[in-house]
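## Example pair
The file below holds two records. Each record gives the amino-acid sequence first, followed by its structure token line.
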Amino acid sequence: MFDWVRRRLDLMRLQDERWRVLFGEDPSGEVVSVDCETTGFDTRKDDIISISAIRIAGNRILTSQSFNAYVRPEAEMRADAIRVHQLRAKDVADARPMHEVLPEFLDFLGGRPLVGYWIDYDAAMIGRYVKDYYGFRLPNRRIEVSGLYYERKYGDAPQGTQIDLSFAAITRDLGLRTLTLHDAFNDALTAAEMYVQLKEMQSRGVRIARAKTHDATAGITAG
């Protein structure tokens, strides 16, 4: 209820009609898989240095309709983040600042829900800029692929079941190819593949078996 009230207040206070589209569900029924790489891991202080987004229409991943941008940060690049994504300050020194990139990203996003792995982190990073530049909180609905995975694999699990919601576990159980990690486009693409497969499994009533197996097809059961 609180989120709904906050969303309504943001809409009432909206100063730029350009962004009203963000507050309504997109009529296309599409969702957008999103991933960001950042200068560090503090959503209050660190900056985005790379952002990718890929539209998904039903069970089709529209890689030809993707958004990709490097961003020149204001925050200092932290060593622990560099070890993760391998991007250094000089690699993005000539990139555009976020105030130029963000409106293009929001136009691409529209009212579509955000899909991703650890999507609350990416949404918080993006949302901080939205709040700073435009005065409202990012209103788009979020869909966490690890939540979809949990429901398909552990939704009927007995108490005490060991749970693994890691990116690697989801990739393995769904039989997905392993792309280079911590690249914004690759991570957005893999999250999109997870989403499409898990939604298809939901529609067919198929669950992921909890028995340990390296054969992804053997790990899928009906129910």
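Second record, same layout:
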Amino acid sequence: MRYEIARHFPQDMIFRESAPLISLYQPTHRSSPENKQDPIVFKNLLRKIEGSLAQLPAGDGSGLIMKPLYEIRDDPDFWMHTLDGIAVFASQNRCVVYLLQTPVKEYAVVAGRFHIKPLIRAFQFTENYQLLGLHRDNFIVYQGNRYGFKELVIPPGVPRTMKEVLGSERTEAYLTHGSYAGSGGPTMYHGHGDVKQEIDKDTEKYFRYVDSFVFENYSIKSKLPLIPVALKEYHSDFRKISNNPYLNEKGIYKSVDAMDPDELLERTRAIIDEIDSEHVRKTAESYAKAESGSMGSSDRTRVVRAAFEGRIETLLIEADRNVPGKIDFETGKVESGDIDHPDNDDILDDLAEMVLSQKGTVLVLEKEAMPADTGVAAIFRYK
């Protein structure tokens, strides 16, 4: 196989490969019969790439670049396992394919740099998360994205229930509570007035165990947002004792057992969307503050110069704005040009690559979310 499937962005090849470079984006489909048209669309995009490569001098290695693309075109197994979109980056040395869980617009270009804005957009926000389904005496952990989730299997022998965790440390008070309304009725505590206090102590001990176990075995490794799913009273008790920095301030206030997978996913998506919206809002506020203090700008010329000098901390780019041309990464000079010519791509895309290569942050936003109308907005680094 001459192409490889990538799962993380950005790949080193984005900054290392030499022209000519191919960038191809295409919406795809998960199931039949819709996915029957996907290979045909891909073939049409390849024709556009072939036309661009034909403008280059002979001996440029374009035949070598196209080989893995033809392999993708002719691989029925590949087209049976696509998701909602693909992104393909190809050079003379490598061909990398991203299977995307968000749709993308058709786009195919040959240029001196890879076209990365759609990929930034696909990977920039919270897509993956972990869920903690919490009861007073049991817990469960899921991991997923906005399209689904699965249970993370806790190894056999690991204490999981309150009884397993506390064992003989459980208070006598907890062991003597009962239900006055029958087996399905609410739990009523009988005995002295301090019975509930003793039970709360057991709950606190157990929640501390859950918090420590989830952090050490899942959160610290994945670094993903942890969304609690529990009855309202358990949220409050758990947050009081939690030391997990990945525990999200938002949660789902319903027992995980009282929801089917579709409802749980829908509620989780709503939280993920809130997290992303809040991130954009705070970034826009940071830009406004930076601009007022001469530490931010939406002037393209000034932004390009700052990027060339490595002075951009955060760059915002308008998603559907293209400025044909290129940036000379050696001099910082901006050159306008025809986007259909293989020497050119999108100046804003080059700008994004320059900032990413310097460990800056890049967000690609809809026009309505941009804090400026020039297509760019930058927050500068403090020197």
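Notes on the second record: The CA atoms of residues 131 and 360 lie 30 Å apart. DSSP finds twelve helices and 18 strands in the chain.
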